[in-house]
């Protein structure tokens, strides 16, 4: 499966990949930019890991922390952590280097550093999270309005430490859905249609349609909506029928994130994107990162949907990654017709 293009960011990544490989020919660079995909992010991080192996840890960390270094190009840069969560290098957060950020979460509560470490330790791969872009050489993690979806790639760099980098999933946050990968754009459209349906119909009709697997609110690829009230009670779902009427507000994923609570809070704040971990019934029910989008219908209930990270990258979660916790959600995979 080909990865989706990320327009100008992809071009930047292609340039970085060429530079990291030591090639400066304009013709080669232009060709790389023209054919760039998000796969360049993996190439970039793997090149940085190879550099760390040959240059040594100290020299590599100095290079990764250098805002003018070969692995730092504005919004695209390499950072480094040890497996205890200590930040070892970051060109835009130098004041945090040496501090433990193992429990750091993004604006919606995703423990992104722990997930990055887990992924790197299991062979490396893609992650996704919400994070601000650098402005004037620094990153304002307290500025809530600057957080945007970011696709990351992480890899082990040496004994006891790992590195990562990331690119925004959109070139122009807040100006429309076109820059998003197709699956994400379609998911946002589905949530907006579900929200409109809920506002135009009575609750019973809306819940019935949301729960209808062949209805208008399940798209051609099998993606669906779910509906909750603000107490975390599941109101409608095409696959979790046994859980309808139950409160899932205290449900925790393998990292301790209470994802229904986080989804609820996002909807209550007006809606938007959120990243969380959820079982993927199309991948042997492996726990996997999922990009969610939620919107309030009214003051009593909200709707949401999601896209698994593997649908964007084409990479499956590894068998050792995110073991499935016991619980009611196992019912989601009992139906062989489940497709998304």
Please characterize this protein's 3D structure.
The strands form three sheets. Strands 4-3-7-6-5 form a five-stranded antiparallel β-sheet. It has a five-stranded antiparallel β-sheet with strand order 9-8-12-11-10, sandwiched between helices. Strands 1-2 form a two-stranded antiparallel ribbon. The protein has helices at 7-20, 26-34, 39-55, 57-64, 112-121, 182-200, 203-211, 259-268, 309-313, and strands at residues 72-73, 76-77, 79-82, 87-89, 125-132, 147-158, 161-168, 226-229, 234-236, 272-280, 286-296, 301-308. The model is unreliable at 1-36, 171-177 and 319-337 (pLDDT under 50). It is elongated, with a radius of gyration of 21 Å. Helix 1 (7-20) runs antiparallel to helix 2 and helix 1 runs parallel beside helix 3. With 340 residues, the chain is an alpha+beta fold. It has two domains: 53-168, PAS domain (Beta-Lactamase); 182-333, Beta-Lactamase. It is built from nine helices and twelve strands. Strand 6 and strand 7 (161-168) form a beta hairpin.
Number of domains: 2
- Helix and strand content put the structural class at alpha+beta
How much of the residues is beta strand, in percent? 15-25%
CATH superfamily of the largest domain: PAS domain
Element-by-element helix/strand order: HHHHEEEEHEEEHHEEHEEEH
> How is the CATH topology of the largest domain named?
Beta-Lactamase
> What would you say the CATH architecture of the largest domain is?
2-Layer Sandwich
Strand order of the largest sheet: 4-3-7-6-5
Write down how many β-strands occur, each being a DSSP E stretch of 2 or more residues. 12
Q: Terminal Cα separation, in Å?
A: 16 Å
Shape: elongated
| Rounded Rg | 21 Å
CATH C-level class of the largest domain is: Alpha Beta
Main sheet, how many strands, which sense, barrel? Answer: 5 strands, antiparallel
Supply the number of helical segments. 9
What are the segments in which pLDDT stays under 50 over at least 5 consecutive residues? 1-36, 171-177, 319-337
What is the helical fraction, as a range of percent? 25-40%
Q: What is the mean predicted local confidence, pLDDT?
A: 82
